[in-house]
Amino acid sequence: MKITLNRINDDYLFQCTNAQGNSILLDNTTQPGAKGVSPMESLLMAVAGCSGIDVVSILKKQRQEITGFTAEVEGERVVVEDAKPFKSILVKFMLEGTIDPKKALKAAELSFEKYCSVSKTLEPNVDISYEVFVNGAKV
């Protein structure tokens, strides 16, 4: 796996591109007029995307009808010398459709305990937790 990072303005705006040519913009969001997401925001996005793909894949295999899927991810940071790494991350899945709540909860559990490479990478240093809501009700 390989990505390329290219600076595309005179400040902090970078374009990150994968081998297939798909890209995202990264920027220093502490500066006015930022046009991309911060690297730390992109890390939260990666957790949401990785676990989201897992949950949808597991539920589709179980023939659950997903009509809506949203994830919210919140990260709490802590100062360690000059850096501010994540201390904890909370992922909230909001699913809509004809979905067995127990299957949705199990899918999230499997993602974080077995399949999601992003959260497994962070796991030794970051407390990652999750909540699942099906049709507005917390499971």
UniProtKB/TrEMBL annotation:
From which organism does this entry originate? Chryseobacterium camelliae
* InterPro entries per the UniProt record, alphabetical: KH_dom-like_a/b (IPR015946), OsmC/Ohr_fam (IPR003718), OsmC/Ohrsf (IPR036102)
Superkingdom as given in the UniProt entry:
Bacteria
Identify this protein by name.
Redox protein
Q: Which PANTHER family match?
A: PROTEIN YHFA
Please give the Pfam families that the UniProt record associates with this protein.
OsmC
